[in-house]
Amino acid sequence: MATLKVPVHVPSPSDDAEQLRKAFEGFLEVVHLEMDSRSDLSQLIIDILAHRNAAQRNSIRKVYGEAYGEDLLKCLEKELTSDFERAVLLFTLDPAERDAHLANEATKKFTSSNWILMEIACSRSSHELLNVKKAYHASYKKSLEEDVAHHTTGEYCKLLVPLVSAFRYEGEEVNMTLAKSEAKILHDKISDKHYTDDEVIRIVSTRSKAQLNATLNHYNTSFGNAINKDLKADPSDEFLKLLRAVIKCLTTPEQYFEKVLRQAINKLGSDEWALTRVVTTRAEVDMVRIKEAYQRRNSIPLEQAIAKDTSGDYEKFLLALIGAGDA
Amino acid sequence: MATLKVPVHVPSPSDDAEQLRKAFEGFLEVVHLEMDSRSDLSQLIIDILAHRNAAQRNSIRKVYGEAYGEDLLKCLEKELTSDFERAVLLFTLDPAERDAHLANEATKKFTSSNWILMEIACSRSSHELLNVKKAYHASYKKSLEEDVAHHTTGEYCKLLVPLVSAFRYEGEEVNMTLAKSEAKILHDKISDKHYTDDEVIRIVSTRSKAQLNATLNHYNTSFGNAINKDLKADPSDEFLKLLRAVIKCLTTPEQYFEKVLRQAINKLGSDEWALTRVVTTRAEVDMVRIKEAYQRRNSIPLEQAIAKDTSGDYEKFLLALIGAGDA
User: Fold this and answer.
1) What predicted TM-score, i.e. pTM, was given to this entire model?
2) Where does Ca(2+) bind (chains A, B) (predicted)?
C-alpha cells in the first residue's frame, strides 16, 4: 500500500512539463536569487513530482525531453542542491532505473554496512529485480551481478552474488516436506555456527518467499526460537547482522524498513542518505505498512519524526511522499 | 542461421491443425494397424511440424487445443513411439518450454556427464535463458536455480548454479584493461591448478560473452596457449571437462555442438538422446554453422552421418530439421 497521493484530476504530462519549464526559466531570469522565486520553484516541483505515480513521472520526463530537448533530470540537477536535490532526482527516476542507480553507487563504495544491494535483491519482487537488471545493462553496459561479484569479497560475496542473481518463483505453493527438512538443515548449521555454509546460502538465496516463510515457521515451531534470535549469537558480527537483515527483508520487509528509518532518524545528525532512499523507494510500494510499523515501535508517527529531524524543501518533499497533507 | 525450411506458402494454423486431427482420427479407425496409414501419419507430421517455425508451431498448438479440446502434444504422444516421438514432441514445444523441460529432466537425474544444464545456461542468449526461467516457474512451480542448487553438490554446484543464474550483459562493449587483468587471474589460478577458485567461477559465470572473448584472446596471446589447452592438464578429470565445455559453449557454440553430435553419432549404438536434443534445439538457431563445423571436422556431411546412423521416421524428421531436401 502506497502513501503517494495523486490528485483526482491530474494535468496532462505536457501541462506538467510546461509548468516545470516555465518555472526553471523564470528562476534563471532572476539574477540575484530571491527567496520567493526559489521557494516558488521548490513548491511547484513538490506539487507536481511528489504527486505523480511512476508512469506519470515517466510521461512527464519523456514529454519534457521531446518538447525542450533537455533531460528533465539534468534541469532539476542544475536548479536544486543537497538533500532536496537527491530526493527529487531519485524519486523522479523510474523505479527500476532508480534501483540500478542505487545499486551501482553501492558497488562503487561497498562497505560491510552498505546493505543497499541486499535490500534491492530481497525486498523487490522477482520481476522488479529483473527490471533492475535490465536497467543496469542499459545504463552501465554490464551486469549488476558481475559488478557485485567483482567488487565484493569473502563471505559477503558468497551471500550477495546469489541474492542479486536470484529469479525466485513467486507463487504461493509450498512444499511442507521440504520446509521441514530445510528448517532442520538451517538449525543444524546455525547450531554449529556454520553461518556461511553453502546450504544456508542456497536455501536463503534460491527458495521462493512463500517456501522460505514455511521453512522459517517450521524452524520457530520445532526449535523454539525464531531464526533471527539464533542468528544473534554474536551481536557484533557484521556478517550475522547482514544475514538477519536478509531474513527480515525477505519475510517482513516493512519491519526491515522501519528499522532502517529508525536508525537513520535517531542517529546523531541523522542519516539523510538512508532516509531519502527508504522514502523514495517505498512511497509507491508499502509505505503505509512501514508507517504503521514505525508508529508501533516508536510510539510517534513517522511524519512527526521526519518533521522533527529535517527542514525546508527536503522536509516538505519527504512528508508529501509519505502522504502527509493533501494531494 | 537456421536450417529449418518453411514453405513459401504456409497453410493457416487451423488448416494445419485440421489436417493433423483428421490423420489422428483416420489412424485410430484402423483397428489392425496397416503400415500405410502409420507411414501416412508420420509423413504428415513431418511435412507439417518439421517445416514450421516456433511461432507457427505455437499457433497450431493453440488452434488445435481450442478446436478439439485436447493438447496437440498429448495427441502426438498417444500416436508416436520411441525416438521419433521424443524428437517430434521436443521440437513442437516452444523453445523456452523445451529448454525448461530438458533442464528439469536434467535436475532429476543429474550425473557429472549430464551437461544439458550447462549447455542451456551457456549457449542461449540472456533473454532466451530468462524465458527458460519463466517457463520453468510456470511449469514446475519453482525456480530452475533452486532445483539446480538443490540437486547438485560440490564443485558442480559451485559452477552450475551461477551459470544458470546469470543474466549476462549482451552488448559488444569491451573493457581491455579488465580483459588483461582477468586473463592474468585465470592464468595464475589455472597454473596453480585452482580450477574451482571463486575468481575463475566469477569471471566465467558473470562476464558478457564479448568481454570473456576479449579476456580469452588476451590469455592466448600473453600466455602462449588457448585456455582450453591449459585446462587439459588432467584429461580424465570430469570437472575440467565440464569447464572446457563451458568455455567452448560460451565462445564457439557451433564447435561445442559439433562435438556433441560427433560423440553421439560415433558412439557404439549411437546416443539418440543427445542427437535429438542438439538437432531439435539448434535447427532454428545455428545449425548451418554446426553443419559446417561437422563437415570440416569429420570430412562427411552431417546429413550423411545421421542417415547412416538412424532410420525410419526418426531419420526423416531429423534430416528435415537440418535442411536436407525441400520444404
Assistant:
1) 0.88
2) 24, 26, 79, 265, 267, 269, 307, 309-310, 315
Assigned domain for A60 exists: yes
B316: distance to nearest CA of chain A, Å?
40
Q: Tell me if B86 sits within 8 A of B76, measured CB to CB.
A: no
**Domain co-membership, B258 together with B233:** no
Describe the crossing of helices A312-321 and A272-282 by its angle, rounded to 10 degrees: 30
Which positions in chain A touch B170 (Cβ < 8 Å)?
137
* Rounded distance between C-alpha atoms, residue B317 and residue B46, angstroms: 6
CATH number for the domain spanning A196: value is: 1.10.220.10
**Residue B269 annotated as binding?**
yes
- Span of A166-170, A292-296, B107-111, B310-314 with lowest mean pLDDT: B107-111
Angle at A126 between CA A125 and CA A127, to 5 degrees: 90
**C-alpha Rg value of chain B to the nearest Å:** 22
Verify whether the Cβ–Cβ distance B208 to A142 is below 8 Å. yes
Domain that holds residue B21: 13-79
How far off is chain B from A198, nearest CA to CA, in Å?
9
- Estimate to the nearest angstrom the gap between the alpha carbon of B215 and the chain centroid: 26
Q: How far is CA A142 from CA A139, A147, A148, A246, B57, in A?
A: 8, 8, 11, 25, 35
Give the model confidence (pLDDT) of B87-130 as tens digits.
Answer: 999 999 999 999 999 999 998 875 655 689 999 999 999 999 99
- Cβ distance A208 to B143 less than 8 Å, yes or no, reads yes
CB B195 within 8 A of CB A193: no
